[in-house]
Every structure is written in C-alpha cells, then in structure tokens.
Amino acid sequence: MKTFAPEYYSGFRCIAGECRHSCCLKWEVDIDEESVEKYLKVPGEFGKRLKKNIIYDENSDLPHFRMTDERCEFLNDRNLCDIFTELGEESLCQICTDHPRFRNFFTGRTEIGLGLACEEAGRIILSSKEAFSLIEISDDGEQEEGDFFETDLLELRNDLFDILKNRKKSTDDRIIEMLRFCDFDTSGIIYEEGTVDDMACEQLACYLLYRHMADAIYDNRLEERIMFVAESYMKIRNIWAKSTDKSLSFMVETARQFSEEVEYNTETWGF
What we know:
With 271 residues, the chain is of the alpha+beta class. It is built from eleven helices and eight strands. α8 (198-212) packs antiparallel against α10 (222-242) and α10 runs antiparallel to α11. The model has no long low-confidence stretch (mean pLDDT 92).
C-alpha cells in the first residue's frame, strides 16, 4: 500500500508552546487502548498522576484525559505536554501523535494531509507558492486495485485539481468552472468585493477538495461533497475579502476557526 501526502506535508513541525490555540485546549482527548495500557504501567508519582487523570465515560468507547477549565491536565503553564516531557514523544497517545493530520483511505492507497484547525498547518498551507501536488511518502509493497467508483472518483478529482490550479484565471473563476464541469448551477454564487490573496485562495480550494471529496467513497454523496467544498471556499474567501486585515495571520486564523467549528462538527455539513 502506497501512502501519499501534499508536497508541503514534510515541512510541518508542531510549534508546541508557541501555539496560540493549542490542541490541548477545549478538545476532549480520547486515549486509544494501547496507550491506556502503557499509561497504567507507568511507575512512581507520574504514574499515579496518569491514573488519576484518565477518565472513563460510559457514553464514550474510549477514555479521555481530565479537563480543567478547558485545559488538558497534562498541559503545563508553558503550554507544553507533561507526558511528552516526562515520557518522551513515543508515549503520546494516537490522537496526540496524529493531530493535525487526517487520512483518507482507498483500496489501493492511503492519503494523509494537514488540517486547517492547526495554526501552523494553516500557515504552511496558505503560504505555499507551489501548485498543489501529491508525493509518495511510503510504500509497504502490498498493492490492491480499487473498484470502478474509486478509480472514477480519483480521475474526476484530478480533473478538478487541474481546473483549480489553472493560474490563467482567478481562483474565484476556477471555482465556478469546477462547479460547471460537474453540471452544477452557478447562478447563485456571490463573491464579496474586496482584494484577496489569490495564491492563498488557490491553496484553500485545493485543500478543501483534497480533504473532503475522498469520503464520497464511503457515503456515495459525491455531489454534496463537491458543493460543500465550493461553499466552504466562498465563506472563507468572502470573510477575507470584507476584512481590512489582509495579513497571512488573519487568513490563517479565519481558516482555523472555520475548520474548528465546521470541519470538526459534521452536524453542520448538511449531508
């Protein structure tokens, strides 16, 4: 099985204590079973602290770390993780190791990406000047062909990427062309007047398509997902256009808030 990632993926490093919106804040962190077993075997005072702060909730399949004032109990006053500093990076639970990464699974390949809910990932994505491209990052040697729907979906996505990467047109126009290519009615599209960073818009559009189109393999709701990509793009882009703040940091923060409130809350998707 081959694994692919955007070319910018390897440039990501967690900025830890420098992060203004730590993923150890607000989020209830689930702990995978393997990590729980490991934590329960930790000796000494830190082991006691771990056991005390692993919470078992009857409404959840997995336990989670105790939260106090919306902070994980292991997030110290320097906004660093005590599990990391005490036991090493290899002792982090799976969700803490993975975030802000996401994965899309196909029969014949796995795709991995960075999510906009992380401010450093957002900075890397939105400031990238290179056209979106996928590179192979691993290959375990086992190959399996996908079915016709999966093959057709990937071919369609490649066509849509080609449209979104055509820098002879504005990204706004490319979004419209993408929708028309898929036989959508575009008469209701309204873009707010105002200058926008077209390169950042392009990276945003490609990110959204890469992250959200793949799951049509599971729910067979391809049309809804493509429209979700376009609508999400327009919402973020219009906020950028209306604001007098044209800085990269503002664009990253807008995208981060969208990701946190929408991408991580599937009830808001409408499908």
